[in-house]
């Protein structure tokens, strides 16, 4: 006797429709009830037989599962069907990259522990505190079997016209929130199909070696700049992980490599890429401007140039981020509405910003991570590097600030205005 089939409901919030899936043992979607509510006022009821679909494999009239060929998945066994369904659903949610890896200790766990032991993590103590979890994803979710790994493109169509630089990933809304929301939708839709499945979403929020899992899931390979590179798309994508207590079909790890190239190592202005695949975060502008709470060591201030928040230099020089006739997807602008660049204040406006204005202006933005104090500290350094005398009064207001870091950085910035040599090259050459 086959097990009794049951009807369950899935709410696919992406397009505000709801569907009922029938799940038999080993097969999904024998028949689908689909309610299409194009507007809340005029819901439309539709009933579709899977047999009808099987006769027309390319006519898939399911706006609620746009692009998910249920007719195809219905023919497969459940592991393959669910894996395919998850991937198509993730793509429908806007993830350009999706792959699945086993939830096993990551292959570079030893390199990670060595990196910590060398002190390369600087003040990021949380990496050390959670190291035992980072090297064992199964410890984050009891019974975890699979890691669904997604990649979201954040490349902007063009860089904002500002007198400072912000890393591309931080130009729009905070990607942590965007990815989390999408993965929550994926998890709840999946739980509607398979109610017993447990999941845990990790977007920096849970300790996971995201790049290692992404590499295993086939999303990309490690570049010498330590970024994960996808050969057709480049490296301008952020990563999210959904751990699941579900056995899925696993992808093969990504293959690729830099060859003899070392452009990123030579371009890094602070020498943070101490060797291929080795980043000393204590020297990295991204760490200095975002993670470090105290004063930025003086030796790194001039090399920071215009970088106010984060740094993209080792990705900008990377040939994999340059579109080619045969690789048109590289650095292609993101289509995610929430990652489109927000309007940004000028450097002078930032230097005049109160803590309250900062909180309002950067609500829902990754820039909030550096906090008001960190952003002002960074802005003082950029102002010093810019050597623009009109900024003098704005710098001077921090000479007597309560915060010793701001006082000290302001004094340094003023000293830069007195320098007789010209400003660094990036302020002289139009970018
Ligand atoms: C801490 C951290 C940082 C630190 C340290 C960066 C670093 N390289 O580790 C700082 C603040 C500097 C930073 C900067 C940036 N970060 Co960050 N960061 C993280 C975080 C939270 C942990 C990374 C980590 O564990 N580092 C520890 C070291 C040891 O790991 P690793 O450098 O990746 O080293 C591995 C490889 O080198 C490899 N390896 C070692 N030896 C060898 C040898 C060979 C031959 C090979 C192939 C590999 C290999 O093994 C190591 C262990 O996994 C992750 C999110 C997460 N939870 O994973 C995001 C993450 C790595 N960051 C990300 C981003 C976008 C950035 C920035 C681009 C932001 C910016 N523009 O300012 C820069 C990039 C700087 C750079 N060149 O890496 C993305 C990367 C996306 C991608 N496509 O790669 C992540 C995954 C966040 C996310 N959710 O998307 N970051
Ligand atoms: S992000 Fe900037 S400072 Fe950090 S390694 Fe890359 S080029 Fe160097
Ligand atoms: S710039 Fe060259 S060496 Fe660096 S990551 Fe890109 S391909 Fe690899």
Question: Could you outline the blueprint of secondary structure elements for this entry?
Answer:
Layout (H helix, E strand, L loop, with lengths): L5 E7 L4 E8 L2 E10 L7 E6 H6 L14 H4 L4 H15 L4 E6 L6 H9 L7 H5 L1 H4 L11 E8 L11 E2 L8 H19 L5 E4 L7 H7 L4 E2 L5 E2 L7 E8 L18 H5 L5 E3 L2 E2 L5 H7 L9 H4 L2 E3 L3 H4 L30 H5 L3 H7 L9 H16 L5 H5 L7 H15 L6 H4 L3
Parallel strand pairs: 7-14
Antiparallel strand pairs: 1-2, 2-3, 3-4, 5-6, 6-11, 8-11, 9-10, 12-13
The protein binds cobalamin and iron/sulfur cluster (2 copies).
Question: Care to describe what's here?
Answer:
This protein has 431 residues and is α+β, with helices and mostly antiparallel strands. The chain folds into 3 domains: 1-75, no CATH class; 77-341, no CATH class; 345-431, no CATH class. It has 18 helices and 14 strands. It has helices at residues 50-55, 70-73, 78-92, 109-117, 125-129, 131-134, 175-193, 210-216, 263-267, 285-291, 301-304, 313-316, 347-351, 355-361, 371-386, 392-396, 404-418, 425-428, and strands at 6-12, 17-24, 27-36, 44-49, 97-102, 146-153, 165-166, 199-202, 221-222, 228-229, 237-244, 273-275, 278-279, 307-309. The strands form 5 sheets. It has a 4-stranded antiparallel β-sheet. It has a 4-stranded antiparallel β-sheet with strand order 5-6-11-8, with helices on both faces. Helix 15 (371-386) packs parallel to helix 17 (404-418). Mean pLDDT is 83; it is low at 1-76.
């Amino acid at each position: 006797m086959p097990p009794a089939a049951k009807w369950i409901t899935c709410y696919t919030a992406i397009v505000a429709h709801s569907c009922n899936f029938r799940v038999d043992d080993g097969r999904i979607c024998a028949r689908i009830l689909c309610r299409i509510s194009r507007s809340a006022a005029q819901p439309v009821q539709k009933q579709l037989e899977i047999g009808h679909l099987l006769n027309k494999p390319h006519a898939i009239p399911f706006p609620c599962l746009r692009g998910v060929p249920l007719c195809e998945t219905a023919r497969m066994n459940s592991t393959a069907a669910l894996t395919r369904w998850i991937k198509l659903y993730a793509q429908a949610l806007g993830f350009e990259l999706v792959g699945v890896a086993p939830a096993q200790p990551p292959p570079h766990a030893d390199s990670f522990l060595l990196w910590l032991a060398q002190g390369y993590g600087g003040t990021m103590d949380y990496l050390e505190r959670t190291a035992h979890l980072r090297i064992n994803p199964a410890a984050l979710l009891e019974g975890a079997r699979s890691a669904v790994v997604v990649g979201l493109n954040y490349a902007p169509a063009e860089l904002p016209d500002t007198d400072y630089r912000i890393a591309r990933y931080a130009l729009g809304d905070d990607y942590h929130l965007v990815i989390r929301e999408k993965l929550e939708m994926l998890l709840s839709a999946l739980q509607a199909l398979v109610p017993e499945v447990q999941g845990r979403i990790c977007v920096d929020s849970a300790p996971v070696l995201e790049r290692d899992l992404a590499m295993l899931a086939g999303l990309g390979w490690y570049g010498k700049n330590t970024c994960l590179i996808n050969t057709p798309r480049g490296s301008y994508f952020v990563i999210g992980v959904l751990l699941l207590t579900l056995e899925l079909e696993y992808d093969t790890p990504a293959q690729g490599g830099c060859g003899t190239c070392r452009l990123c190592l030579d371009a890094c202005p602070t020498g943070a890429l101490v060797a291929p695949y080795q980043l000393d975060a204590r020297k990295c502008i991204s760490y200095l401007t975002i993670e470090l709470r105290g004063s930025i060591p003086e030796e790194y201030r001039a090399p920071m140039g215009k970088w106010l928040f984060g740094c993209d230099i080792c990705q900008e020089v990377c040939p994999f981020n340059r579109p080619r006739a045969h690789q048109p997807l590289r650095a292609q602008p993101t289509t995610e509405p929430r990652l489109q660049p927000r309007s940004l204040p000028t450097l002078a406006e930032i230097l005049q910003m109160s803590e309250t204005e900062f909180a309002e202006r950067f609500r829902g933005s990754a820039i909030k991570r550096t906090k008001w104090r960190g952003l002002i500290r960074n802005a003082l350094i950029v102002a010093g590097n810019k050597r623009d005398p009109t900024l003098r009064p704005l710098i001077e207001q921090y000479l007597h600030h309560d915060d010793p870091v701001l006082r000290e950085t302001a004094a340094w910035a003023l000293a830069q205005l007195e320098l007789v040599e010209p400003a660094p090259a990036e302020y002289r050459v139009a970018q």
